[in-house]
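[Discussion] Sanity-checking designs against the backbone

I'm trying to build intuition for which residues belong where. Below is a structure token string of 278 positions. I'd appreciate it if someone posts a full sequence so I can compare it with mine line by line.
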């Protein structure tokens, strides 16, 4: 599953990177003609990639579990993305609301769902989640509402919630603060690949690749979508690691880079690994 043999080299290049530039330069072991080398990751990095045939490739710390940070927003798309998308959700982020602050002190301004994903706006998601929570309570009652959330988030919660937990007020840990929600590059990739979660990648393609198309002057024409996120580091207050999940066509990739890194570095690293223009 995680092996990187010659058969995978060819598949990776034909399927995943067919429109991409060559992978980053690295020491080149003897390989079959026409086959490009596997990505070489830096210490602490983990990468998981799916190919069109269903194979999953893993590199580095792909199975290391750590706080998932803002990737949690993709999980919320699975819970309520259709409703937010249909209702053209909008939010005005001023950088702070009560005791809560957003990643950008001056605020993200008025954000749509696509922009809140792109800019990783916690306050927008918390506001939208609070709205749907109130609606679920009214329409379904607390038990059904809680079941709906736990059913989707269970892979990332482990046993960190008591069995008799009731519907909480969804605060910052539910959009990626702290270490309530955790995953690994391979774990999140496998979650994205499950048929019942397919709409998450579809949202990513529609909302985030669309954004990239708008800045094609910077990045050239491509169909990749990327969701970047920062995450906390257990035992190191204030430190962050960073994530990128994304895809192109039916190929999906998830990258985690270690402590000390942020979203721009993670995106640059993902583009470097995939051989995309920066
Ligand atoms: Zn914001």
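Best answer:
Here's mine. Compare freely.
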């Amino acid at each position: 599953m995680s092996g990187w043999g010659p058969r995978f080299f060819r598949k990776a290049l034909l399927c995943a990177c067919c429109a991409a530039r060559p992978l980053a330069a690295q020491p080149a072991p003897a390989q079959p003609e026409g086959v490009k080398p596997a990505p070489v990751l830096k210490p602490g990095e983990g990468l998981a990639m799916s190919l069109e045939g269903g194979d999953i490739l893993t590199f580095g710390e792909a199975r290391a579990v750590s706080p998932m940070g803002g990737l949690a927003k993709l999980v919320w798309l699975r819970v309520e993305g259709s409703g937010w998308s249909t209702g053209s959700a909008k939010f005005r982020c001023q950088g702070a609301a009560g005791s809560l602050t957003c990643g950008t002190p001056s605020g993200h301004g008025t954000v749509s769902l696509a922009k809140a994903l792109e800019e990783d706006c916690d306050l927008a998601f918390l506001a939208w989640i609070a709205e749907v929570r109130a609606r679920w309570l009214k329409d379904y009652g607390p038990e059904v509402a809680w079941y709906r959330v736990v059913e989707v988030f269970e892979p990332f919660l482990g046993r960190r919630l008591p069995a008799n937990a009731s519907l909480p007020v969804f605060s910052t840990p539910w959009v990626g603060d702290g270490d309530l929600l955790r995953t690994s590059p391979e774990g999140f990739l496998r979650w994205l690949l499950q048929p019942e979660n397919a709409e998450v990648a579809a949202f990513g393609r529609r909302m985030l690749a669309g954004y990239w198309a708008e800045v094609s002057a910077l990045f050239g024409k491509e169909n990749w979508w990327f969701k970047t996120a920062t995450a906390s580091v257990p035992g190191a207050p204030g430190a962050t690691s960073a994530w990128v999940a994304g895809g192109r066509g039916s190929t999906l990739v998830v990258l985690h880079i270690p402590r000390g890194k942020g979203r721009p570095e993670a995106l640059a690293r993902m583009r470097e690994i995939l051989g995309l223009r920066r």
